[in-house]
Structures are given as structure tokens and as C-alpha cells.
Design a protein that fits this description.
A hairpin with a 6-residue loop joins strand 12 and strand 13. The chain folds into two domains: 269 residues, FAD/NAD(P)-binding domain; 149 residues, Elongation Factor Tu (Ef-tu), domain 3. With 434 residues, the chain is an alpha/beta fold. It contains eleven helices and 16 strands.
Amino acid sequence: MKYERVKVVGAGLAGCEAAYQLAERGVPVLLAEMKPLKKSPAHKSEVFAELVCSNSLRSDRLQNAVGLLKEEMRRLGSLILSCADASRVPAGGALAVDREGFSALVTERVRAHKNIEVVEEEVLSLPEIPAVVATGPLTDGPLLADIERFFGESLHFYDAAAPIVEYESLDMGKVFRASRYDRGSDYLNCAMDRVQYEAFVDALINAETVPLKEFETPKVFEGCMPVEAMARRGRMTLAYGPLKPVGLRDERNAARPFAVVQLRQDDKEGRLYNIVGFQTNLKFSEQKRVFKMIPGLENASFARYGVMHRNTFINSPGKLDCAFQANAKAGLYFAGQLTGVEGYVESAASGLVAGVNLAHALLGKDTVDFTRATAIGALAHYVSEYAGKDFQPMNVTFGIMDALIDPPRNKQERYEKVAERALCAIDEIIAKKM
């Protein structure tokens, strides 16, 4: 394959990771980003790798699939994980970041790389090969139309973001610090009794939402289900979901709360807090009214209200391979949520796989199949080989990885064995192929 440089379209998490992996292997990269000339409805800043929804990259424990995925990516030299670790903020067993500091660091490292040239332009059609398309879940306009022509179809679902409140506006007399199961004190917790919970659920169910004009009955990804939609599923759905009080204690009060709303630090200084699990499509005025019913948030100032937006993804099984390359066109790779992976870490992981494998193709090396024994490989195989009738975006889970031959009966021990096997596999791949 002849080339002067590889074009990577989109400087989100996946695009930056793909560009970095290519550049680190000596491949010249032209990174095309439409900001600041144009922004999607979800983007606010001009930096790369902007975190649109939560500031959390979720669990950092190896007994959790996304925690394992992060450790695999660290060992593989991930730009995104390096920058996330350098900008982390307290979040118990999770990896959360100062969102502005994180994006600024990614931007700085990408722009400073000797093998990456950044160009500010809106790409309106699929680029010439070799290329990586990582334009994200809000891809639209002429480029979306060209992708649809190339693949013959595209799918859509709706995603939502949670509101952020200012720390100084909280009533700390009603809020207590704790992480679940005594894993530190990184979260702020707002306890509800039964009466408060019931009133809150009633208000949620009856609150006005923003009309979704494009579809009457849009698909909503389960992992980002709006809090009001969860409340409508049943009065106890929230109490057994994001508001479950299990593993939390307020040292000032021996009584166990009926429900707990958690707040997670969103910036390095601790001035902003994200309301955990409160993705929403409520009107801004309704968010202000209903969420101020939460004990401790009666006088809350909202730095950002929750929003809901359309996401677009390719029906990838059979159309992409396990390297995220288009089966119909060698040298054309896709990465990020556009491929059907879901989540910050998963998006960056797809960029890593695409970047590594495109570099290998250009340098005359073999394709790296990370296999289902690893979290990163299992995600790639899910996207490329899912055999069901209704392909939907997927977070990484142990369920998509190869099962152990003789698994321990204890779940935690089983997950530990899966993680041990995966990291050994990653180390072997690095030693032999990377």
C-alpha cells in the first residue's frame, strides 16, 4: 500500500489514540479535526478528546472488565490512559479525571508529536486510503451520507449526559463523604428516607422532557438510560439501581438510608460534582426543580444541565474485521463509538487497535489479533462478529471474553483468573508482535 501519510479523521478519544499509535511507530499522520470551525451539538470546547458526558472512565479494578481493559491499554502504551492517569481526581475504585486538564494534556501531546500534523477542516466524504475514520457518534451531513452509501445502512440510538453542580452550593450538613464498601471517601452522598424518595420519584415521572423530533420511539442505550425513564419502569427501579444504599454508611447517623444519590468529583480542584447515574432528557427548568428535591441540593447551582442527543453507529458485524478495518476496502479503518463500542475507554481501545494494525499493514507486519482472551480483543471480536439479530453498542464485559476451561466457582476468583490470563496474553503479544 503506497502512502505519504495516513489521514485520521476526528480528534476525539479514538482518533487521538489511533493517530498516536501510528505516529509512535514512525508513520506520518495528518489528523483532521473540524473544531473550532464547527462543533457538534454535544461539544463545547475546542480541545481534543473532549469528555462530553461523565468525567469517569469507570472502575479501575482488575476484577471489573473495564478495569482490566484499562490495564491492558496501559501496557500497550495508550496515550489516553497515560493522560487519564496523569489527570485523575479522587473517585474511590474508579478512574475519574479533571475533564479540562485531561483534554488539554491529550491535545498538547498530540500537537507536539513530530509525526502528527493537525489540520482544522470538516471532512465531507470518506478519505483516500490509508485512513482511520473516528468521527464519533454524532457524525452527520455529507460524511454520514457517504458512510451510509459505503456500508449500505446506518443505525441510531439516543445517549444522555448527567448534570454537574457546584460544590459550594451544596448543603454539607446533609451530605456525607463515603465510597461504597469503605473504599475511601471520594464520593459525596445525599441520603433519602422513604418519604423523600417517593416524592422524588413522583416528581421525576411527571416532569416535562425535551421532545425528540427525529424519532417518535428512539432506541436508548441501556447504560445511559435517562433517570426519568428508569423511574417510569417501576417505583423501586432507582432504589435498586443508581440510588441503591448498599455499602454506604453515614458515620453521623446509624440509620441506613432508604436511597442515596451519589456525586462524583468532576474537576481537579473539587469545585464541580457530577450527579452519578442521572443522565436525563428533562427540560432545564424541570431539572432545576426536581433535582433540588434531593437532600443537600436544595440550593444547588448547576454548572451544566443534563442533555440528550442522537448517536450514530455502523452495523459493524460482517462489515469490519477484528482490526476495525472495513472488509470491503483494505486500508480503510474505523474507530470509536461509530463502530458500535460504547464508552470512553472502549472508544480509545478501538482507536488503539486500529492504529496499531494500520501501522503494521503499512510496515509489512502481521495483523495483531488480540483474541477474545483479552478485554481489548474481545471487544473487537464482538463488534466484528456479533451473530445476533439486533446489534447494539457494547461496553466491555467479562461475558464477551473467552470462558476459562476450569473456572473457579467464586465469581471474584473467576474474574481474577480471567484478568491474569488476559494480562499474560497482552505481555506475550507485546513481546512477539509489538
